[in-house]
Each structure stands twice: as structure tokens, then as C-alpha cells.
Design brief:
298 residues; UCP032676_Znf-C2H2 (chains A, B); mainly alpha; Haem_Oase-like_multi-hlx (chains A, B); Heme Oxygenase, Chain A; 2% strand; 66% helix; oxidoreductase (chains A, B)
């Protein structure tokens, strides 16, 4: 299949012409979401369907490499390259409101995270896949002697004076809710390798070894956090994620690459594109929540 | 919904007349599976649809109790009451072939088990449900310092001279395969509380505290295993399951009971009936495999 990541609409295998027509139609109606996606991912120049089709073909082209390097290259280019995600920019300095926004919205992300990881286990017999997901769920959600990521997140929020109870009673922002709905749909309807590509690619956001792929920004400025104004709870949360996401994201991509020859690569790419589209918006929700907190609207 | 556990065919809510018609039709065609189910669960006397309908209504009746006691009463009556499952009878003495058959077929059961437990996690936000399933998966499948149930099973098989490799390369018997297919379908399509009822009710097979519900047989004769002919690997496997299934089954039923008021009870009952139907046949596959081994056909 080919996919429109904005609408989550699916087209025939390799049917990049129909996909281009869809985008041109949306652009004609001045739909800002489709235009923004085109600008960010394909071209900033106005194109007709004949001009767009080779760009989509090129987007899906593995360029002789595997799915692993395709995903890393795509992710770096959209999130951490010359035109990084605004959240990455914000994280280059210490801003307590951004971190508070992060804490609130990310709680809902992690509640969905465990549901996606367990869906993967439920859909495969491969022991290495199951064990990988099990360990990921333990680190992120359940804990095992050590505090899981979700507890460190709630500790960070509490350090800022936002109680666990308050977060749990919060309705996530629209972008977060939309993202969760799409991830839930992927977990329910897609195959294990597609869910894996959709979800674990997102852990590349914090991977610190992506310079060779063109990353120009770290997830956060390690230096900026080396000061006494930053609460210990913040450091504990960020450092833990920083270390575990390095291993998590690459190990998952290695597993996907290993099994990918037995699966439809285009469907794996679709799942990646569908997921990173809502992830982009979800990261904006972290900023939006931070601004609400700064303006005393939360 | 009402369900035919044999065909997994669904009828309208409370439509026990249509369900009765279905069974009468099958009985007229002398379908042995439907007749056997009727004999085991409703009546040994030939009945018309008018006679059968109140029996089905009665089967689904909670009798003023909750879903927990309904499940326990049903399970005990079908598996461990006056007319127990043949596998229970076999297990009252030590029979090494039966245990070898158990080891071979149960490997495939446990491979599906972890898929069902993780499907439950993937479909709920309730933390107590997720934690329960996580701990169950660790005990049964992944291990955590201690050997998981599946490793103890493979140890038992090895003790009998059946290698892990051989088991993993075995095609499960038809009854086992059919059961796994149905459990997989339930894990994919049903809600979390229905999957929970479908799967964890099965752990009642080894629960040692069911005398008050009318259980007349233990899962296995503890006394028979108190002898030197029984390999240590067999004792380790049986005793571990014996202890963990006690806690597992009742804790799961308590969780189901706690949340059941927010869900359609009849759908939970359907899931239970659909699952125990294939479980009955699956336990027969353990005997069948044991006989194959005894006759050197495996």
C-alpha cells in the first residue's frame, strides 16, 4: 500500500500517482495539514501530480539499503536535521514549562505505549520479538526493582508541583488524543512488524548516536542540564530515557530489518509514516501544554 | 449474545430459542459434536427446542450470584465434578506417557497463552488488569530469576528424553491446533474482560480449593507423586503450576467480577463457553499424544 499520512487513507501498492492526486486535490482546497506535510517531507515548491509522483516514489525508495536505514534517514530528516521539530529546539535550553508540558502529555503517551508493545507480543510467535517488547514494557511501564520510566515522569511532574492525581484526571490535548487514537488503531489492526516500525522508530527522538545520519541536534542539550537550577527529578527522568531509548530504538530496528524480507516493506513504511505524522503533532502538544501552564491555564 | 460453543456461532442477546433450534437441527443431522456437548452440559435426554430453551436460559442464569461463581460452578461441573474430564481421571495415577503427551501439546498452549495475556494488556488502561497479566506472563513464559512455567515444561520433556528441538518442530495435534486458532481469534476480536474470562477460567483446572464448589477430583493425585519413581523434573513442573494456578485463577476472576457491571455479562459468558469447549478437546489431545508416545508413533 501507499498511504496519506495525514488522513491515514490507503492507496494501492506503489500507486504513487493516486496518492499524488489526493495531495494535489487537498492542496487545491488549501487544506493546511496536507500542505504542511508536503512542505516538511517532499517539497516546498508547488507541484502538479506529475511532479509529485516521482517525489513520492523517491520517498518510499530504499535506495539499495534496508528498512532500518530508511527509517533512520527519514526520521532524522524530519525531526533532527536542518529543520528540526520545534520541540527539539525548545529542549536545547532548560525551560521548566516545556518540561511540565512534556510530563503531562507524555503520561498519556506511555499509557498507550504499553498497549502497543503488548499488541506486538500478542501477534507473533518469535521469541526475540516477544522478549524485546517485554523488556521494553518493564523499563517504560512496569519496573523491576528499578523505577519505570512512567514513575520517573510522574516524579518529575510532582517536583514541579503537579500531582499524579491531577495528571490522571487531565484530558489530553487534541493532538495527543488524535495520536493515541491512531496508535491504538495501528495496534489493533496492523501486523506485529508494522506496529513495531510505527512505535519504536519514535524512540529515535532521543537517540544520541544519529550524527552519522545527519542529526544536527541532540534530544536535549546535555550541557544545559548540568546546572543546579535543574531539579534532580528532571535529570533522573531525562537521563534514564536518554540511555534506554538509545538501545531500544536500534534493537527494534535490527529486529525489523532481520524479519523484513518476509513481509511487505511498503506496509511497514506506511505504518512508519502514519505514526510519525501524529507523533509530530503530539510533540507540539507538549509545547502547547507547557504554554498553558506558563499562562496559568492549567 | 448467546453462542453455540461448538461452532462459535453467535445468536442475539438472550435468543435461547434460536440457539436451541440450532442444536436441535444439528442433533437431527446426528452431528456428534453438538450431541456430546448437550450431553455433557445440558441434558442426556432427547429434547425438542421448547424443552431445550429453558435449559439454555438456565445455563446462562447467574442465579443471583456474580460472574465469578457462575464460571467456577460451570467449570467444576464440566471438568472436575461427578463426571470429570478423562485427563483428570488419567492424572489420578502417575503415568509417564500421559505426562509426556502433556509436555508436548502444552508447549503450544503456552506459546498461545502469552499472546492472549498480552492482548488483554493491549486492550485496557486498567492498571490492576495490566499488572496482573504482566505477572502472569512472567511466571508462565518469560521468567524473572526463577524459571518460567514453559521452561519447567521443557525440562520435564527432556527428563523423558524428548528434546526441546523435537517439540518445537512438532505439529500440534488437530484438537490443539483448533483450540489455538479459537483462542487467537478471541484475543484478536474480543474485549479485554472477555479474553480474561476465556483464558484464566482455564487455570481453574489446577486450582486445589474447589471442593466447596463441588470438585471431587484434584488436578492430579498429590499422593501418587510422593514416590521415587517420579522424576524430579515432573515434580518441579507440576508443583509450580499447582501453586501458581491457585492464585492466578481466583485473582483473575476477582478482577472480572469487579469490572463486570460495566460490561455485557452475556458476552463474557459466551467467551467462557467458546473457550472451554476447545479446552475440553485440547485436554483430550494431551491423552492422544501420550498414547502416540506409548505406541511409539511419535
Amino acid at each position: 500500500m501507499a498511504i496519506c499520512p495525514v488522513c491515514n487513507l490507503k492507496f494501492g501498492n506503489n500507486d504513487f500517482l493516486a496518492l499524488s492526486e489526493h495531495f494535489i486535490g487537498k492542496a487545491k482546497d488549501s487544506d493546511p495539514l496536507h500542505v504542511m506535510w508536503l512542505n516538511r517531507n517532499l517539497t516546498k515548491t508547488k507541484a502538479d501530480k506529475k511532479g509529485l509522483e516521482p517525489l513520492f516514489r523517491n520517498l518510499y525508495d530504499l535506495n539499495g539499503g534496508g528498512i532500518k536505514s530508511w527509517i533512520i534517514n527519514r526520521f532524522v530528516s524530519e525531526y533532527r536535521g536542518n529543520n528540526p521539530h520545534p520541540f527539539i529546539i525548545k529542549m536545547q535550553d532548560y525551560n521548566k514549562y516545556i518540561l511540565q508540558g512534556y510530563a503531562v502529555e507524555h503520561y498519556f503517551f506511555l499509557k498507550q505505549w504499553v498497549r502497543s508493545c503488548s499488541a506486538i507480543i500478542s501477534k507473533t510467535d518469535y521469541n526475540d520479538v516477544q522478549t524485546y517488547e517485554m523488556e521494553n514494557m518493564v523499563t517504560e511501564y512496569f519496573g523491576n526493582g528499578k523505577k519505570p520510566h512512567i514513575e520517573l515522569l510522574l516524579d518529575m511532574a510532582e517536583g514541579f508541583g503537579i500531582s499524579r492525581k491531577k495528571i490522571m484526571e487531565t484530558k489530553p490535548l487534541k493532538n495527543t488524543e488524535n495520536a493515541i487514537n491512531r496508535w491504538r488503531e495501528i495496534a489493533q489492526n496492523n501486523g506485529w512488524i508494522e506496529i513495531m516500525a510505527a512505535m519504536h522508530s519514535l524512540e529515535l527522538i532521543a537517540n544520541s548516536a544519529l550524527r552519522p545520519y545527519g542529526a544536527r541536534y541532540d534530544y536535549f542539550n546535555l550541557g544545559a542540564f548540568d546546572n543546579n537550577n535543574v531539579p534532580e527529578t528532571v535529570k533522573a527522568f531525562l537521563m534514564e530515557g536518554y540511555h534506554s531509548d538509545n538501545a531500544h530504538s536500534i534493537e527494534a530496528l535490527n529486529i525489523i530489518e532481520k524479519y523484513s524480507r518476509d513481509y511487505n516493506i511498503e506496509n511497514i513504511q506506511d505504518a512508519y509514516l502514519a505514526s510519525t505524522y501524529v507523533f509530530y503533532n503530539y510533540l507540539e502538544a507538549r509545547i502547547e501544554r507547557g504554554e498553558m501552564i506558563e499562562n496559568k491555564q492549567y
